[in-house]
Design brief:
Elements (H helix, E strand, L loop, with lengths): L2 H11 L4 E2 L2 H4 L15 E3 L4 H14 L3 E4 L16 E4 L6 E5 L4 E4 L5 H9 L3 E2 L12 H7 L6 H4 L6 E7 L5 E5 L12 H4 L8 E8 L1 E2 L3 E9 L2 H13 L6 E6 H11 L9 E9 L4 H14 L4 E4 L3 H12 L1 H8 L3 E7 L5 H15 L2 E7 L4 E7 L2 H4 L2 H16 L24 H14 L29
Parallel strand pairs: 2-4, 3-4
Antiparallel strand pairs: 1-2, 5-6, 6-10, 7-11, 8-9, 8-10, 12-14, 12-15, 13-14, 13-17, 16-18, 17-18
Helix pairs in contact: 1-3, 8-10, 8-13, 9-12, 13-15
Length: 472
């Protein structure tokens, strides 16, 4: 990065909003994975017009540019693998408008997700997407990864709530897609193209999000089981019974013990699996739904079924679920976290395949996640040296193969980024993958936006990555 480029950056945003000292840069070279790479500078814009000028400069000088929210991603998506410039949205963090008449909210990308929840709920409204990292992750990152969360089983994922976007193209032009209208079929719908693109096609600068009325009431129930297979069968049974809970989460025995040691919340240390079930809606209608779910739990030999009696107890249970990742890092700071997803009815089969893989490769594999939508967080626990071994690589390949054979996808909400890049061919056939590459080349011919993400080089694809399989 030449001095002239940095000088021009400072003219756009001010000297104090450009960092290039090594001790500053190191803070922007990693995300929540073990992957890291140093940028050459970090810039903090305040407005869309500044972002556009920054992108124009990057395009003109052929400088790689990576947009960054909180750096909480789990696939390496915010890591500046090619160096260059990190564009931080830490100072574009305003909630611009809450429209109570049209049930929308207009935000900048640096808004923390939990802050958005609090702001709209204060007005009796509801923004459903709730990633586990919502206390610090940002809306821009959520959109870039199409993040899910605990409530996805009933309410869907981030993309289901994005009505429109303002974004800067790789050449610095500004586009606006979508509208506040309930119906809108004017031309191509560009919004879904940018949601989940991991910052490779455009830089999002504003988002128009859909809101719902805040549910009147909610109830939370827990069920414990002797083993994980019983819990998995219960999940399938709840869905088959046409019960649609707000959330349906599970922890395996290793997760339960880790969280209890970490927080001391009184979780059942002798249980083989733990389900956390929540129902929301009208005050008078949730009791029957909760009892119906409880009956399915008992039918599948639940050891104990209990309903949280007050808000404090509900919060204690959700604290346990949201703390699993942190608790596991107390056991070992080195782990691989995969977020595979399968059709919900195939969760029991997937759980059994994971147990087989753990036994075959003699690895400790810890599972937890969003059972209600088939999204399982599979954590391979090992030391640093072992995580880079052929044995772990084979286990990951076997995991993805099993996932695809059961009609699943190698990522449900974390994205592809760097970490899953070699395995994308397990889900996408060659024609589909080339079409995606063509879109990237069309919109970003100089390959400056988040280069190196999603698409693997031929030398990266493992022999056992598996062929692309669609809708088996």
């Amino acid at each position: 990065m030449n001095p002239e480029f940095k000088k021009l950056l400072r003219q756009v945003v001010g000297t104090e909003n450009v960092l290039d000292a090594p001790e500053d840069l190191v803070c922007y070279g990693f995300d929540a994975t073990r992957i890291s790479a140093m940028p050459q500078a970090v810039v903090f814009p305040f407005s869309t017009s500044q972002v556009a000028e920054i992108v124009k400069l990057a395009c003109r000088h052929q400088v790689p540019l990576v947009a960054r929210g909180a750096g909480s991603g789990l696939s390496g998506g915010a890591v500046p693998e090619k160096g260059g410039l990190v564009l931080s949205f830490a100072r574009m963090n305003r909630i611009l408008e809450i429209d109570t008449k049209n049930l929308t909210v207009l935000v900048e990308p640096g808004v923390v997700t939990a802050d958005l929840h609090a702001a709209v709920e204060a007005k009796g409204l509801f923004y459903p997407p709730d990633p586990a990292s919502m206390e610090f992750c940002t809306i821009g990152g959520n959109i870039a990864e199409n993040a899910g969360g605990m409530r996805a089983v009933k309410y869907g994922v981030t993309g289901d709530y994005v009505l429109g976007l303002e974004a800067v193209l790789p050449d610095g032009r500004i586009i606006r897609s979508g509208s506040r209208c309930v119906k809108d079929v004017v031309g191509y719908d560009l919004t879904p193209l940018l949601v989940g693109c991991e910052g490779t096609l455009a830089v999002i600068t504003r988002a128009l999000l859909r809101l719902l009325p805040l549910p009147e009431a909610k109830k939370t129930m827990t069920a414990t089981f002797a083993d994980l297979n019983q819990a998995a069968d219960t999940v399938a049974g709840i869905i088959a019974s046409r019960i649609l809970p707000t959330t349906l989460e599970f922890l395996d025995k290793h997760s339960i013990r880790a969280v209890e040691k970490y927080l001391g919340l009184g979780l059942p240390m002798d249980a083989g699996a733990f389900l956390l079930i929540e129902v929301d809606g009208q005050m008078g209608g949730i009791d029957a739904t909760m009892e119906k779910a409880a009956a399915v739990c008992r039918k599948n030999k639940a050891l104990e079924v209990a309903v949280a009696s007050e808000a404090g107890e509900q919060e204690r249970l959700w604290k346990a679920r949201r703390s699993v990742s942190a608790a596991l890092r107390q056991i070992s700071p080195f782990k691989i976290n995969e977020d595979i997803v399968v059709p919900r009815a195939r969760i029991p089969a997937m759980v059994r395949r994971i147990e087989e893989i753990a036994g075959r490769h003699q690895l400790q594999i810890v599972c937890f996640g969003h059972a209600g939508d088939g999204n399982i967080h599979v954590n391979i626990m090992a030391d640093r040296q072992e995580l880079e071994s052929a044995r772990v690589e084979c286990a990951v390949a076997d995991l993805f193969q099993a996932t695809v054979e059961l009609g699943g996808r190698i990522s449900g909400e974390h994205g592809i980024g760097i970490s899953k890049r070699p395995y994308i061919v397990a889900n996408l056939d060659a024609t589909t993958l080339e079409l995606m590459r063509s879109l990237k080349r069309l919109l970003d011919p100089c390959n400056i936006l988040n280069p190196g993400k999603i698409f693997p080089g031929q030398d990266e694809i493992p022999d056992n990555a598996g062929p692309g399989v669609v809708w088996p």
